Amino acid sequence: MTHILKTLNSWFWWENIWMPINCTWANYEDHDGLVFPKPQHLYATIPLAFVMLLVRFFVERCIAIPLANALGIKQVKRVKPQPNPTLEEYFKECTKKPSQAEMRRLAKKCNWTVHLVEKWFRRRRNMEIPTVLKKLQEACWRFTFYFLSTIYGFAVLYDKPWFYDIWLVWVDFPFQSLLPSQYWYYMAEMSFYWSLLFTLGMDAKRKDFKAHVVHHLAALCLMFCSYSANYVRLGTLVIVVHDCADFWLEAAKIFNYAHWENTCSVLFVIFSIVFFVTRLILFPFWLIRASAYYPIYYSTTLVIAYFFFNGQMLILQCLHIYWSYLVFKILRKFIFIQKVKDDRSDEEEEDSVSDAEEQSLKKGSKNGCEASHPLLNNNNY
């Protein structure tokens, strides 16, 4: 098996791409109790992703649901619309929100009243809207992972000399041995993102669905390549810098769904501060500097991996700048306007309410609108 993997690696010119001159796969053979990163280690992330899904099931059922009950969030029972092939075809092929003129035309075509057609479209739209409980379960799972990942990241890095002196990231490269803590850090992160890819079709589908797919694939690609090239020290630093902001956002979402506005606001501000510090200061001036500038002092050969990773890091930084601009705009509106309508949120109504209550919901009742902070439903960060 090892011989086959080495052959495959040679076919893809791994040695020429990732390793400096005079360095071959033979130098990565384990010896004297030292273990070195190998691409085949990461094959285990696929079965581990299914283990991650089992952990997610436990968190969503045994932690998120009791938390939702404590916060007063109940499951909404959706009433399915009456089967109607004409309206169903119009809903899928034309629009989910027809105009009043189209409502009247469809009502005449189906021999229904306009009120029944409106109710059918409202119920049909609601069938595609994830309930608040479902979104809270997902946010609770992501919060749990990002929070534990951040704690684990700092726990395994706080005693490492390169955590305080970034110059030491490249000492002895590429012959740096792999620590068990680094191995499991990569295993957990990659299996988590694999599990997110596996459940994209079942999770609450948002308008940035395609961006989700691209983000997850890019994260997996970069982690795979950084592990294969033995950029593990730098890779673990990049992971912890990104995860430490995300759990604040997920916590803000949880309390946002419960309409704890003050708590949500505080968490949102904390998230904004951590996001700006990690993505606009630490990432460019600490990590990109270490990745792009410092290696020239330790190696006379800059392999293709050097240009590949630094190009990806610069692209990621451009995204950070763009996202920071969006966060700043929302934070400014939050500070000066206080209440901001989320254009991305959809109506969520219960069909058991009266017609008068339905009209109130349409006008933006608290039970009909999902969020008061636009950022909290955006998963681009």
Automatic annotation (TrEMBL):
DNA-binding feature ranges: 89-126
PROSITE patterns per UniProt: HOMEOBOX_2, TLC
SUPFAM superfamilies assigned: Homeodomain-like
Start and end residues of each stretch annotated as Disordered: 343-381
Highest taxon listed in the record's lineage: Eukaryota
InterPro entries cross-referenced by the UniProt entry: HD, Homeodomain-like_sf, Lag1/Lac1-like, TLC-dom
Reactions performed catalytically: sphinganine + octadecanoyl-CoA = N-(octadecanoyl)-sphinganine + CoA + H(+)
Record field: compositional bias (Acidic residues): 345-358
Domain Homeobox residue range list: 87-125
The keyword Transferase belongs to this UniProt entry's keyword annotation: yes
Claim: DNA-binding is one of the keywords in the record: yes
Cellular localization per UniProt: Endoplasmic reticulum membrane; Nucleus
Pathway listed: Lipid metabolism; sphingolipid metabolism; Sphingolipid metabolism
Topology within the bilayer: Multi-pass membrane protein
Span of domain TLC: 134-336
Keywords: DNA-binding, Endoplasmic reticulum, Homeobox, Lipid metabolism, Membrane, Nucleus, Transferase, Transmembrane, Transmembrane helix
Transmembrane segments: 41-59, 143-163, 183-201, 265-285, 314-331
Protein name according to UniProt: Ceramide synthase 3-like
